[in-house]
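QUALITY CONTROL LOG
STEP: pairwise intake check
CHECKER ROLE: data steward
CRITERIA: each record must contain a sequence immediately followed by its structure tokens, with no blank fields

ENTRY 1 OF 2
RESULT FIELD BELOW
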Amino acid sequence: MTDCQGDGEGANTPMELYERLGEQGEKVRSLKLAKADKAEIDAAVQLLLKLKVDYKQMTGQDYKAGCPPSENVTAQNNGPPADGADEDDTVDPWNVSTTNAKGVDYDKLIVRFGSSKIDQELVDRIEKVCGQKPHRFLRRGVFFSHRDMHQVLDAYEKHKSFYLYTGRGPSSEAMHLGHLIPFIFTKWLQDVFDIPLVIQLTDDEKYLWKDLTVEECHHFAIENAKDIIACGFDINKTFIFSDLDYMGASPEFYRNVVKIQKHVTFNQVKGIFGFTDSDCIGKISFPAIQAAPSFSNSFPHIFGSRKDIQCLIPCAIDQDPYFRMTRDVAPRIGYPKPALLHSTFFPALQGAQTKMSASDTNSSIFLTDTPKQIKNKINKHAFSGGKDTVEEHRKYGGNADVDVSFMYLTFFLEDDEQLEKIRQDYTSGALLTGELKKILIETLQPLIAQHQERRKQVTDEIVKQFMTPRPLNFNL
């Protein structure tokens, strides 16, 4: 991770920091125009993002080029930012929390995790390389951060392909809308790049972390596989596997697990994942199991003995600690580092600072919900950015940045122009909260009904075909 601490030192006033930001922005542009080394560009971008975070902490405002801070803005103290966000959001594979109604501060998270921002240049490049309009998740910043995506595209342009890896921790039978995000995007990547995909179902992890039996976890894996298959993945290019099944059936997979385990110390996993002396040894050893699919020779039925095929992992950014560890180990055991695309978090109905829970059926829209349940949940529980009365809302408008109905539409409404009009109308007060919720209801009801219909077509035999180790149809 690039050490950016102290890079804003010497900027004692908002104007000094504003000028420092302008200089750094110009440096980034110059490096890109000169086609400088990628590592140098990434380091410059990291510093730029760090300075933007410092600017917001100092002024309480987002940095905007051409809009210097007003003279009456003074450096703020080190208390909580004006928007109510905590100094540090909590983001790890098991906990995500923030006090900010807008959700996690992702720019700050990029700096903290040492990843790179998906900027417009990268989105444009993906469009050029794949020859397709970028997915709405890319256009709208749902997938906002990456590791080594330029390297993946460089290789692809030289006719050197890659494979996809994503996964799901099956802790219950029913999945909710948020669980679909990585699969919707992964399907798009599979389609536009025409590449193979492996999907890991970590039923072993859920047994280790949850109060569930092994049999329950494996059953949930099979049920979740049906929802994943219903997303439309190509059976000829997709292998889905349960850890409880595949670990014992693939010596090559287990050998990679052992190699990874040998190169990670107990102190390292405690530092990365926060394990304590009272955690069971299964938890301590599990990260190596989630890391192993990042290496192509873990799947000899697909890639043979080849270990040089790069892996691209689309996932929510809370899973990044696993793959920071993986990327550290990879060169030491002779494998390429996996690349990553990170998504933002899907908010709970009660607001972006509230955690969705499978035990609270009102915290999200589940893929098993009926049209009536969807309508009732949104009308009763979706957090509103509107004003208390119609009169106030018409006069002052609503806040789309904290309104959950609008947030959900950014994920699922395809039309960019329609989405922007909704934002403008809601912000101006022309569109009321009830009307905004109605648009969301009418968007989600058919989407979920169609998913349920596709899931009905997924038989046990189809699940077995997807989960049987076999050659896949692709060209690398």
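ENTRY 2 OF 2
RESULT FIELD BELOW
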Amino acid sequence: MTRGGMESVEVFTSEGKGRGLKAQKEFLPGDVIFAEPAYAAVVFDSLTHVVCHTCFKRQERLHRCGQCKFAYYCDRTCQRAAWLNHKNECSAIKRHGKAPTENIRLAARIMWKMEREGSGLSEGCLVSIDDLQNHVENFGEEEKKDLRVDVESFLEFWPPQSQQFGMQYISHIFGVINCNAFTLSDQRGLQAVGVGIFPNLCQANHDCWPNCTVIFNNGNHEAVRSMFHTQMRIELRALSKISPGDELTVSYVDFLNVSEERRRQLKKQYYFDCTCEHCKKQIKDDLMLAVKEGDNKPSAETVKEVIQFSKDTLEKINKARLEGVYHEVVKLCRDCLKKQEPVLGDTNLYLLRILSIASEVLSYLQMFEEAADYAKRMVDGYMKIYHPNNAQLGMAVMRAGVTHWHAGLIEAGHGMICKAYAILLITHGPSHPITKDLEVMRVQTEMELRMFQQNEFMYYKMREAALKNQKIQVMPEPSNETAPSLFHKKE
């Protein structure tokens, strides 16, 4: 079955998985298979005053809705674009006295849209909200308790003059949100800022080594009457060559975990057992569990001790990062690396996690040379583990390239920035803000590299003079979050 705007894909029944999507034509790496606007979407509770409620961009100054005093927008253009979805929400917030949680707001927006358009197939949708899986029957006791609380809170918020829905149907909507909601990121793709429902995307099944990736595009609302206006949407993009009839898959979890752990996460969060080739054959597990080889190969007991020490250290690091004590984070990383380096292999996932944190925090503290060393080792490990067109690999290589650039290691920095640019052209496309930023960096580092190759001494003198005359750009403050995951799971 295909539907308007979705001619390139078809819904089919996938053996052992239920519904899935398959390609109707050939796609090459970087091709956009389809773009889909949100059926409904909301900003996270903690960011409602710093993120636009229409395009989900972070902005310095936002305009607040004069009626409910809750919603914020970039400008009048975004505010007008939001009114259809915000109108009922606005009056309900005023009646209720305060805004409810993001889950309640998202459920309400879904049901107000149903009230306006009916519960059947919306334009461009391959499936209706009614047909999405809710997995309520798989909920554990804690999830059932949370569901009851959400339903009660929803009923308190839902206006009496709006269409009334039964308890079972409201539970279905919350179940859909629980296992199908998609994480929305800011315009740089670096921070999760909201959550939305995209019915077509929900049909794409999981594979730990997928042939597609999903990128959130905030759109362009600056010229609403021009041919350049684009709406906020997700894009399903091909990572490798896809032939007609191939199933389209995405990864619901980060690949940087051994197969047993990925399967555990998928069972807990999405209620299915992963049967992908990488899980069945435990592909790359040996790399992620690698230990030193040769005459000094550590004993199994020593490896076990170092792994436990690494886990304990990661917990301490998370606490220190939350408190903003970054020098303590650096000390913990250095101490952990001293324990890990004689025992763990270069691709061991616990070593890579410490290297990633150390390079990020040291860059923020402007200790670029040490950060660059750790970043290089991290990237070398990632390149052996991740899919060559993995978006998280691209972002990691980009950060490592910028760190090398700041450290004055222009040759390595330019090489990494070029590598990251090649990956993100496929995963994000040329018009994404991150890719545009990378293109500027690529041109700048190429110019500096030419200067370096012509006269190394003069390059360093000019760089030194430039740094004296202007403040060096401070790297973003380290976040305790990982990169935004594909699907949102209520905490």
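INTAKE CHECK: passed for both entries
DESCRIPTIVE NOTE, ENTRY 2: Confidence is low (pLDDT under 50) at residues 223-229.
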